[in-house]
What we know:
Distance between the termini: 10 Å
Oligomer: single chain
Structural class: mainly alpha
Shape: globular
Radius of gyration: 13 Å
Strand order of the largest sheet: 1-2
Largest sheet: 2 strands, antiparallel
Order of helices and strands: HEHHEHH
Amino acid sequence: xxxxxxxxxxxxAEANAERLTxxxxxxxxxxxxxxIARGASLYQIAAHVAPRHPKVxxxxxxxxxxxxxxxxxxxxxxxxxxxxxxxTEEIEAGDPDKAESWFDEVTQ
Length: 108
């Protein structure tokens, strides 16, 4: 089951994704995303960060930004949060099987 936000929240989630895809002047600068719009989900952001491995990216984003989740719950991403986006290498180094198990556990 996937979460699909309803308007007006869908527009916020799409705006967050669009911010991720804009080119930056300094590629060495840490990538950040935010402020996060109300209704955006960790999985939606992860799917734009790493479309081939969104569950691995979800776990990497969560671990890099624990302060951005209400009560430490990966399902409760705070509106207005600023997220640090892990490097592609860091995301790809994640274990897909462990990420799948983690994701299934936290989304139940």
